[in-house]
Write a structure and sequence with these properties.
Elements lengths: L1 H11 L4 H13 L7 H6 L8 H23 L22 E4 L13 E10 L6 E8 L7 E3 L18 E3 L8 E11 L4 E12 L11 E3 L5 E6 L9 E3 L4
Parallel strand pairs: 7-10
Antiparallel strand pairs: 1-2, 2-7, 3-6, 3-9, 4-8, 5-7
């Protein structure tokens, strides 16, 4: 009876402190996961390479291969003899100069005096044109008179035969050249309104019929002009020839 009780006691009794020590020592000997560092994650135990290490190695290898391929294909390429292209110049079209009513002439004509001429210069070219002078008809070529600024109805008794209104500084020679005070540049495919100050002249012989009349000045013989790159003159502009 005594033996049986002792056996039961041994089976139900808790392990003593000495018996639990090996278990505590084994637990303390395990490495701390938080202190293992990057190397423990990149490399597994026993020298086996981890997946991140394999990916980095592959990328570096491809970069080295790519650099080697670029070096091989980076050859100098020259230009063959006679290499060229085709260009074409623009065609040249004449300017036109026409009478215009606005702005109105500031200096008006009267017998023995000069007055303003207002005109529009039109440039049909695809490039700017700079005008530096005009060529005038003779001093016996006169303007025709009209009743209104639209130059639609002729003024009776004030014709291109009798008006005695002509371009100032015109001479007895047709086509006489007269330089502008300031060069005028008309924009490509553009127009420019210009007042030529005191460049019309009325002689003392002008008839009374030409009083209060609008004049269509005689056609110019030509202009001195060049085409090419230039800054267009801002209009309306004011200019003149003075001799």
């Amino acid at each position: 009876m005594s033996f049986t009780r002792t056996n039961r006691t041994l089976r139900t009794s808790k392990p003593d402190a000495a018996a639990s020590q090996p278990t505590q020592s084994a637990t303390a000997a395990k490495p701390d996961a938080s202190s293992s560092g990057l190397s423990s994650r990149l490399f597994s135990r026993g020298g086996r390479k981890s997946l991140p290490f394999k990916i980095v190695s592959g990328i570096v290898g491809m970069a080295l291969v790519g650099g080697a391929a670029f070096g091989v294909t980076n050859w100098v390429v020259a230009l063959g003899a006679g290499s060229s292209g085709e260009a074409q110049s623009a065609t040249v079209s004449n300017l036109t100069i026409t009478a215009v009513a606005s702005p109105a002439a500031t200096n008006q004509l009267f017998p023995g005096n000069n007055g303003d001429v207002v005109a529009t210069i039109t440039n049909p070219n695809t490039f700017p044109v700079t005008v530096t002078g005009v060529n005038l008809p003779t001093n016996t070529t006169y303007a025709a008179g009209f009743t209104a600024s639209n130059l639609g109805t002729a003024q009776a008794g004030c014709t291109s035969v009798t008006s005695d209104v002509l371009w100032n500084y015109a001479t007895g020679t047709s086509g006489s050249a007269h330089a502008l005070t300031t060069a005028l540049t008309v924009a490509a495919s553009g127009s420019l309104v210009v007042t030529f100050t005191n460049d019309a002249s009325m002689t003392a012989a002008t008839p009374v019929a030409c009083e209060g009349t609008y004049f269509s000045m005689p056609s110019l013989i030509g202009v001195a002009a060049t085409g090419g790159a230039a800054t267009a003159t801002t209009g309306p502009a004011t200019d003149a020839w003075t001799s």
